[in-house]
Amino acid sequence: MAWKTGLLLPLLLLLLGPAPARSFGQLPLVLNTWPFRNATVAAWKTLAAGGSALDAVETGCATCEQQQCDGSVGFGGSPDESGETTLDAMIMDGTTMNVGAVGDLRRIKNAIGVARKVLEHTTHTLLAGEAATKFAESMGFINEDLSTNVSQALHSDWRARNCQPNYWKNVIPDSSKYCGPYKPPTVLKRDGITYEDTAQSYGHDTIGMVVIHKTGNIAAGTSTNGIKFKIPGRIGDSPIPGSGAYADDMVGAAAATGDGDILMRFVPSYQAVEYMRRGENPTTACEKVISRIQKYFPKFFGAVICANMTGSYVSKHFKINHGRSSLVRFQMGKIHGLLINTTY
Ligand SMILES: *[C@@H]1O[C@H](CO)[C@@H](O)[C@H](O)[C@H]1NC(C)=O
Ligand SMILES: *[C@@H]1O[C@H](CO)[C@@H](O)[C@H](O)[C@H]1NC(C)=O
Ligand SMILES: *[C@@H]1O[C@H](CO)[C@@H](O)[C@H](O)[C@H]1NC(C)=O
């Protein structure tokens, strides 16, 4: 969708409750990196039913997994080179700084649910691959094929295009022309510093969600099926604490979306929270993080959402229309987005 066309990076935001601007200002807050409205509504309903911030993040992201938001979350999307869909997810509790995450999860649909089980029932942070699937089964999740006609068609089209695009470099045969299997060349040419193109045009995104409960508890989470035609075993930024998302009740939270292979090198969500800890407002924190990345990867296109503990997520640069489902275009550095502001 918008990501692939590179035109807009929509950002869905619901300002919930009759918004009495008292000590907790604009809380509760549900913020998500895309206009995945159903996910945001599900998170809100969870809060309204007495759920915690963690419950809301889990339900919101799980909604996207079930509804295959934009093909980029849940089963049946982003087949890897072998045609399999694998999932990454993470959930973080900003009250306890506890995190549960799964990477390269196979044959289990509800990745954020498994991440929550890692958080609740283990002292680990991140489980990966087939062993994460075993863990999920032991926690009662169903082992099932994640491929669909859509993901199979994507994969066979890709094979028919000589496996273009792909994520290999410096291999033989030439990965820009041929399918693998690939091998390293006997002599590796080094021609100075080169910055990789970011893979933005391939189309990829994720759901990143931040929830601030009216009591001030903050949670954040992500769920994604990664990028199309990834090399099997690839894990993106989404399940990495501090990269895909980060939350700290004492400061706020952030979540990132974009080219995960680049993003994770900058730990952007952690960095954004740290900027806010040092007194930056959410907008400046987000902008500084993006510009750090763009210094090295000028073509990088991505976004970080930032919210501070008092529920502020916009600066004076942003205009907000109050009222139900009003859309406001905004621009933040290189980030273009749609802000959907709904008051219930
Ligand atoms: C949102 O949920 C409704 C049902 O509750 C469904 O009909 C609709 O297709 C969903 N929207 C998206 C974008 O998946
Ligand atoms: C998937 O493809 C099979 C045959 O290739 C077909 O029988 C089935 O109806 C398709 N399913 C959907 C949901 O389109
Ligand atoms: C959150 O950001 C807003 C807007 O910049 C600012 O007015 C408010 O003081 C910040 N809250 C905290 C706790 O820093």
Automatic annotation (TrEMBL):
Q: Which residues form the active site?
A: 206 (nucleophile)
- The residues forming the signal peptide are 1-21
Q: Which CDD domains match?
A: Glycosylasparaginase
Catalytic activity of the protein: N(4)-(beta-N-acetyl-D-glucosaminyl)-L-asparagine + H2O = N-acetyl-beta-D-glucosaminylamine + L-aspartate + H(+)
GO MF annotations in UniProt: N4-(beta-N-acetylglucosaminyl)-L-asparaginase activity; peptidase activity
Q: Where is this site: Cleavage?
A: 205-206
Q: What class of enzyme is it?
A: hydrolase
InterPro entries linked to this entry = Ntn_hydrolases_N, Peptidase_T2
One GO CC term, this protein: lysosome
Q: Which GO terms describe its biological process?
A: proteolysis
Under which EC number(s) is this enzyme classified? 3.5.1.26
Which superkingdom is the protein from? Eukaryota
Alphabetized UniProt keyword annotations: Autocatalytic cleavage, Hydrolase, Protease, Signal
Query: What residues bind substrate, as annotated?
Result: 234-237, 257-260
Q: Which family does it belong to?
A: Belongs to the Ntn-hydrolase family.
Function as written in the Swiss-Prot or TrEMBL entry: Cleaves the GlcNAc-Asn bond which joins oligosaccharides to the peptide of asparagine-linked glycoproteins.
Extract the PANTHER family matched here: L-ASPARAGINASE, N(4)-(BETA-N-ACETYLGLUCOSAMINYL)-L-ASPARAGINASE
What's the protein name?
N(4)-(Beta-N-acetylglucosaminyl)-L-asparaginase
Q: What does the organism's lineage look like at the top?
A: Eukaryota, Metazoa, Chordata, Craniata, Vertebrata
Q: Which gene does this sequence derive from?
A: AGA
